[in-house]
User: Which sequence fits this backbone?
């Protein structure tokens, strides 16, 4: 059994989608940002950084894993799924996973903050992060012009990237002209396990309020 500590954010959805895709049994512990439950001493023992998602593997001596990319790699290695065993295939997946972790997530997260929540409209900052997010989308589109999924076959790289790209409009970044990225987005979203993962945790407040609260904190 996996204990999943999460919230309805792009990074939280990475973990729940992966658990659904891999068919692992898990218990959901939904944290409230309004109550600052991610900063509670008990949770900080699991993730010293006080961010979601985090997991505890009860079948592996209560081993705790934090950081969404690390969680995806851990679960893939635990199950032997969605991460190739050969050196080149594994590297391709990890390269695109790191592209999301180091590029798409941080840049789109900043676009969200300056476009949606910052008390002042700092247009240079908005332009900077929206343009960089769009550039990263164009990189994804170029890759997807030559492959069905980011690393060839469906993998944890797609699971990491999808929850962010699906919120493109929230960051004010258009997908116009990115037909390959749009095709990929629709294909991933149509997967039953993805749909189940996106429903975790059950909403305790309206969607827009959850996303606003999470994005404003730059959950990572």
Assistant:
């Amino acid at each position: 059994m996996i204990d999943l500590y999460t919230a309805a954010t792009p990074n939280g959805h990475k973990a729940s989608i992966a658990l659904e895709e891999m068919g692992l049994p898990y218990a959901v512990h939904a944290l409230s940002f309004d109550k600052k439950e991610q900063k509670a001493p008990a949770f900080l023992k699991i993730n010293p950084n006080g961010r979601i998602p985090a997991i505890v593997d009860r079948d592996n001596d209560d081993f705790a894993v934090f950081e969404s990319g690390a969680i995806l790699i851990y679960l893939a290695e635990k199950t032997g799924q969605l991460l190739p065993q050969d050196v080149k295939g594994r590297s391709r997946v990890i390269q695109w996973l790191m592209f999301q972790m180091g590029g798409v997530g941080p840049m789109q997260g900043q676009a969200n903050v300056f476009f949606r929540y910052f008390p002042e409209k700092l247009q240079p900052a908005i332009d900077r992060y929206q343009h960089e997010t769009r550039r990263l989308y164009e990189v994804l589109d170029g890759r997807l012009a030559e492959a069905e999924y980011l690393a060839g076959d469906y993998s944890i790289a797609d699971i990491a990237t999808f929850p962010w790209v699906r919120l493109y409009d929230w960051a004010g970044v258009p997908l116009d002209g990115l037909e390959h990225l749009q095709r990929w987005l629709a294909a991933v979203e149509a997967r039953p396990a993805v749909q189940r993962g996106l429903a975790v945790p059950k909403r305790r407040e309206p969607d827009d309020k959850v996303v606003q609260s999470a994005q404003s904190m730059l959950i990572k």
In short: Residues 56 and 62 are 6 Å apart (CA to CA).
